[in-house]
Specification:
This protein has 335 residues and is of the alpha/beta class. It contains 9 helices and 15 strands. The chain has a 9-stranded mixed beta sheet. A 6-stranded parallel beta sheet has the order 3-2-1-4-5-6, with helices on both faces. β5, α4 and β6 form a beta-alpha-beta unit. The chain is globular and about 55 Å long. The two termini are 38 Å apart.
Length: 335
């Protein structure tokens, strides 16, 4: 599949290009960026990729797949343009600004018989794959609570659209880190039946929400407690999964992101592996972390499969919309 990558910021450079390049059945044929510095980086690292300056230039080429990793406010607009030109598309998170917008994209893709894939790569974090294994093996017994955190300590506010107070920029930490947390919870336990949320802005001068707590109740009785913060001076466990028979507790982040930022590729040795000292614990004893496998996302795309369904992205956005309503009223919102 001849692939055009639209955007070459951190997402394009670290989370998309290396995997497109390494995946059998895909070819990184073009990169769209108007930034001269980024154009030079692409030319050096991917000399066989054509450099394009705008999305409109993609329609003049011969591509099978387009990957959208532009700033959040453009995701749905660019995805719609790609679909209307009859091309398959992968869309970085957040998939759209609203569930309604996401449903409209799914309808267009379905009517044209095209692939429309939300990029929820953190389903292939090693620690989440480990939770999946524990659930499949019933190691913990009946699980009643799933706790998950993406916390950082960044007291200084960056000049970035991610910190913007303009709602159109989708800059809230709820859209940024929350999209991952909600999607992982939905992937494990299904669509929630109710949502309670606390959404605040705690850093002086911050314009975007930067501290959020969600409580999701699932149909099977599991309750997901999700925390995301830019001002956590002491980081809680990444996962704490409580079952009838045992608990799984894991600290620290999946190592794939740091390796990608350092310029490593998924073809390198020991990809996705964690050292034993980073493993989580079950019943107080170390439990091996499954290797992280972001490469599996694009392998499925290349095989014509949908690693993540548009409906899952719709569900995630429904949860985010319910969270905003709950934070305003103080009441839990039924889905």
């Amino acid at each position: 599949m001849r692939t055009a990558l639209v955007g070459y910021g951190l997402g394009g450079a670290a989370f998309h290009a290396p995997f497109i390049e390494a995946t059998q059945g895909l070819e990184l044929s073009a990169v769209v960026t108007s930034n001269p510095k980024r154009q030079a980086e692409v030319a050096e690292r991917y000399p066989n990729a054509t450099l394009l300056s705008s999305l409109d230039e993609v329609w003049q080429g011969n591509f099978d797949l387009v990957v959208i990793t532009t700033p959040n406010r453009f995701h749905a607009t660019h995805a719609r343009q790609v679909l209307e030109h009859g091309l398959n598309v992968v869309v970085d998170k957040p998939f759209a600004a609203s569930a309604m917008e996401a449903r409209a994209l799914a309808s267009i893709a379905s009517s044209k018989g095209l692939q429309l894939v939300p990029f929820h790569n953190r389903r292939w974090d090693g620690d989440l794959l480990t939770v999946r294994k524990l659930l499949a093996d019933n190691t913990l017994g009946a699980v009643h609570k799933f706790e998950s955190r993406f916390e950082r300590y960044r007291p200084e506010i960056k000049s970035s659209w991610k910190e913007s107070g303009d709602p159109a920029d989708l800059g809230s930490i709820l859209f940024d880190l929350g999209t991952h947390l909600v999607d992982q919870s939905v992937a494990l336990f299904g669509r929630p039946t109710s949502v309670h949320a606390e959404i605040t802005t705690v850093r002086p001068g911050a314009k975007a929400d930067d501290d959020v707590f969600l409580s999701l109740t699932h149909d099977n009785g599991v309750r997901s407690h999700l925390w995301m913060s830019a001002l956590a001076a002491d980081l809680g466990p990444r996962f704490r999964v409580l079952g009838h028979d045992a608990a799984y507790v894991k600290h620290g982040m999946d190592p794939q992101e740091d390796r990608l930022k350092a310029g490593d590729t998924p073809a390198g040795p020991g990809w996705g592996e964690e050292p034993e000292e980073a493993w989580g614990k079950v019943g107080g004893k170390p439990y091996r972390t499954e290797p992280g496998a972001y490469q599996d996302f694009y392998a499925q795309v290349a095989a014509g499969k949908a690693p993540v369904s548009p409906q899952d992205a719709v569900t995630g956005l429904e949860v985010i919309e319910a969270a905003k309503q709950s934070a305003t009223t103080g009441d839990a919102v039924k889905l």
